[in-house]
Amino acid sequence: MEPRLAYVIFPLWLLLAACQSHNPAIGTSPSVTPFSPGTVITCTLESASNQSDIELDSVRLTDDYILALTENGLYRTTPNERRWSYLHCPDVLPVKGFFTGHTRSSDPILFITKEGLFSTSNNGSTWHLVSNAYPFENAFLLSDGTLYAITSITFSCLEPIRSAKDALDFLRGESWNHICRRNIVVMSSDFGQNWRNITGNIDEGISLYGISEDPDNPNLVILSGNNLGDYTLQAIDNNYNWQMYKTLDWRKNHPSSSKGLFTKDYWTQTPSAYYELRATLANYFDYSFGERVFLPGFDLLTNQAAYTFAPAGSKIITATIKLLPAIGSAQLIDLKDSADLWGIRILDNTDHSIDQLPKLIQLMNASSDRQRLVQRYRDRPDFYRTTISHAQTYTKSIELNNLFNLSAPGVYQVQLIYNNASIVDRDNGEWSGSFAGNVFTVTVKDR
User: Fold this and answer.
1) pTM of the predicted model, to two decimals?
2) What is 40-254's CATH number?
């Protein structure tokens, strides 16, 4: 490039780069369904002939029924009947979507699809189009009837200008517009007839995915989102000024329910062997799926559902790991003489909670030489490798006091977590990941 031309282009480049905007105007998206809100869709019940291998995409439990969504449509049964019937609905009711979260099993069922937000108050016999004003991504109905939803808008935005050549091309009229996306949050006090944008001060860079009731204020909601980490957003008042917290910090200060603490969480760093069991019409009642459509293939159980200990002395329980049937086998590692790969969650009778990471994870987080720490653990004489399946289990005795001091009298709900991800050798066939076990009760009292 000629030097004199560079003196002209470079300032233009800086100016154009500074002027590029990523802030869209937030408005209402056009309707995307061929019918209007309030439309009633009536379904009829038919016997289901094939129930063998149809996978469930979403499940909703009510007081009396279980409703399942599949690629073939909707199915319904009762906990006592345990035989699915097919809900034959007109083609205008989409079959691709999911049921939203809820607080009570008696709440109306909300069904999100690309064509709009639908609801039913009679277990799927009739459906109503609540709204098609936005491309809904999640929704939640509070007990007072206020409806909240996460949606998104797309808008044209400029690619960043990174060089003088980019600036010259832009000046010649060559555009590099592309599509940007931003989540917005809306609420309705008349069940979807009118919507109010309450996005407010939420950073445009956060991707929102969840809505639930605010444990601090049942008349408001909290949001779940991700922006290089998981965050919880709380509206600090009815004007919806949002405060953002790291989710781990939020959970430490909001232990209000065992439902949020004792999740059957599961993750793996071994993508070729994910070990999950998918819910189908045939196996749904064989396992404790509830409203989940996947279960971790690993089952972590204790030998008792309840234990009683004295405040002083040991508190030893027995834990067993096995795989669910038809999952296959996996190679796990552990330390025979230590519980350093094990974490614990505790909820006492005052709703105070503890979510204790395994000792090894804590050491790894504080270590300046993680590789040396990993090798030190793998070189230990009690380092142990075992293959498990449904029939071949791994059993370990665990002193709970080594995970957390349970000397204070009280009644505790407890859950164990196995986490080996820090020291596995995946090249050696060792499964890498973490999973949580069943919840059991520990009572500590003077004898």
Assistant:
1) 0.74
2) 2.120.10
